Amino acid sequence: MASNKTFTMIKPHAVADNNIGGIIAMIEAAGFRIVAMKKTQLTPALAGKFYEVHKERGFYAELCEMMSSGPIVPIILEKENAVADFRTLIGATNPENAAEGTIRKIYAKSLSENAIHGSDSDENAAIEGSFFFGVIEQY
Ligand code: RTP
Ligand code: MG
C-alpha cells in the first residue's frame, strides 16, 4: 500500500532569507498536514550521511557544504499520494526548469540552492523522516 507520508527540508538559504513561513503556507494550501517539524542544523558529516546515496556524484561535496551552512527545517508531511504530489508542488530540481507556481520556481536561487528537499519514494520518505524524528513524533 502506498504511504501517505513524505519528508521535506527547507534548505539553509531559504531559512536565512525568512522564507520558512511562505514555504509552509504553500505546503498547507496544497493540502498537506504537518506531522512533525523542527529547526536544526546539520554538521557536514551528518549532511554526508543523509545524502550518502549521492556520494559518487560530482556535486556531493558542494551539496554537503550547502546543507550544513546554516539552520534547516525538516518536516514530515501527510497527504494522500504524498511523495508524488509533493514532488509536483516543489517543481524540477533545477529552478530554471521548474513550473510556474511551484515552490522552487518562487524560492530557489540555483540548482544547488533550490529551497527545498522532497523524498523520491515511500521507502526513502520513511528512512529520511526517521533520520530526524523519533517514533513518537511521527504520528
Ligand atoms: P532533493 O533530493 O533535494 O529533493 O532534490 P532532487 O531529488 O530534485 O535532486 P537530487 O538529484 O536528489 O539532488 C539532491 C540535491 O543536490 C543538489 N544538486 N546539485 N550542482 C549540481 O549539479 C546539483 N545537482 C543536484 C540540489 O540541491 C538537489 O536538490
Ligand atoms: Mg533527491
Automatic annotation (TrEMBL):
SMART domains: NDK. Its EC number is 2.7.4.6. The active site is at residue 117. Residues 3-138 form the Nucleoside diphosphate kinase-like domain. GO terms for molecular function: nucleoside diphosphate kinase activity. ATP binds at residues 11, 59, 87, 93, 104, 114. SUPFAM superfamilies: Nucleoside diphosphate kinase, NDK. The keyword Kinase applies. It is an enzyme of class 2 (transferase). Belongs to the NDK family. This is Nucleoside-diphosphate kinase. It comes from Emticicia soli.
